[in-house]
Amino acid sequence: MNEKKHNIEDFRCETNKMNNIKRKVAVLSGKGGVGKSLVTALLAVMMNKKDYNVGILDADITGPSIPKMFGGDNYKAKISETGIYPVVTHSGIKLMSINLILDQPDSPVIWRGPLIGNTVKQFWTDTIWKDLDYLFFDMPPGTGDVPLTVFQTVDLDGIIIVTSPQDLVSLIVKKAYNMAMEMNIPILGIIENMSYIICPHCKEKINIFGESKAEKIAEDMGIRFLGRLPIDPMIAQLCDNGEIEKFSQNYIDDCVDIIEKVLNK
Ligand SMILES: Nc1ncnc2c1ncn2[C@@H]1O[C@H](COP(=O)(O)OP(=O)(O)OP(=O)(O)O)[C@@H](O)[C@H]1O
């Protein structure tokens, strides 16, 4: 399906010798603010609940949000001569993010593209994850420098595209799709976030952006539709409180099952 179309240079790098990482999945969005970090965090939480060893590499260097969702903004990764030791969360998920290295998590990273790219590369080559069943990459939004670096550096098993209902009518999802296709990376499917709300009184499902077109668009592109997440104030609260590991809804159960099935074939 994803035949290589362009002559893109290959800069594959090996990860730390101590690592044994079975599956590497990047979570991508065409633009910011659609809930890509949230989806990454939820996938990790759900896979961890299924007893898999899970890690998250936060490749969003200028806007890292993973540590905060797990309550770890003040945790620090340990740097040694052999590599960088990730932070381990309450439930055992391993995290690597620029905010786990900076002295102050609110310090801005004012670096140019190549330095940002090299930092992400170093997270891949130097972090000591040891045994992981799944490593999720939370990519920065868009289809710029860093996604390109990750696509070239890491031998990814697949990407997941996160979108919101409004994006699907634009070309933004198509850009993420085209980038993965050009880099010959399998697309595992699309997840639609902020798809609907549930009335807290009558429990009616309200499609505030109109009837979702996600399934149809996925079908037109020939990729899987992995499911949809509602806007849920409880999710926002869990993120704000750094308690995303307490998430217990079944919104993405099907998505997790599909990913598990496809990647364990
Ligand atoms: N389905 C949802 N229900 C409630 N809140 C949500 C939902 N999705 C995302 N949010 C909230 O929106 C905020 C932004 O989400 P997130 O950081 O995942 O977006 P993003 O796409 O990774 O953004 P960027 O890539 O621009 O940093 C988070 O604080 C999260 O709590």
UniProtKB/TrEMBL annotation:
ATP binds at G30, K31, G32, G33, V34, G35, K36, S37. GO terms for biological process: iron-sulfur cluster assembly. Transmembrane segments: none annotated. The keyword Cell membrane does not apply. Keywords: ATP-binding, Hydrolase, Iron, Iron-sulfur, Metal-binding, Nucleotide-binding. InterPro entries: Mrp/NBP35_ATP-bd (IPR019591), NUBPL-like (IPR044304), P-loop_NTPase (IPR027417), YlxH/NBP35 (IPR033756). Coiled coil: none annotated. It comes from the Bacteria. GO terms for molecular function: 4 iron, 4 sulfur cluster binding; ATP binding; ATP hydrolysis activity; ATP-dependent FeS chaperone activity; metal ion binding. Binds and transfers iron-sulfur (Fe-S) clusters to target apoproteins. Can hydrolyze ATP. Belongs to the Mrp/NBP35 ATP-binding proteins family. HAMAP family: Mrp_NBP35. PANTHER family: IRON-SULFUR PROTEIN NUBPL. Homodimer. This is Iron-sulfur cluster carrier protein. It comes from Sporanaerobacter acetigenes DSM 13106.
